[in-house]
Amino acid sequence: MTVDNFFKEISFINSFLLDVHDHEIDFLFNLADKYKVNKLELAHHILDYREKYVKRPRVCRKVIDLETGFEYRDIKTYTEAFGLDYQKGYRLVMNNPNKFKLVEIDNGRI
User: In percent, how much of the chain has pLDDT > 70?
Assistant: First the structure.
């Protein structure tokens, strides 16, 4: 039996794989014996699904202009403040480490 057919048979939704705990994975592997599902294929399916759909925390970089001391929420805000094209502003900030300081912050925790 394939993994997809196995999940249909036990009424298991793929999106549940993002929130499962170790004991729930053990339960799936124990059921795999009963339904004659290849455990290696099941493990690959679980890992592939989690790698593809897991929500990774986004890291933002706060820009500090060392000459003026002004802080900007991110590079986009800096470029908008000076009316620069985003690509030009990005290159300006990244190529001048003596003029700008980038501080990594968690998204939502500014």
Answer: 92
Give counts: helices (H), strands (E), the chain: 5, 3
How far is it, in rounded angstroms, from Cα 72 to Cα 102? Answer: 10
Residues 30 and 68 in one domain: no
> pTM for this structure?
0.50
Q: Which residues of 51-75 are buried (b: 16+ CB within 10 A; e: fewer)?
A: eeeeeeeeebbbbbbeeeeeebebb
Each residue of 79-106: pLDDT tens digit? 999 999 999 999 999 999 899 998 887 6
Q: Which of 95, 110, 26 is nearest to 61 (CA)?
A: 110
Q: Cβ(79)–Cβ(90) under 8 Å?
A: yes
Q: Do residues 64 and 39 share a domain?
A: no
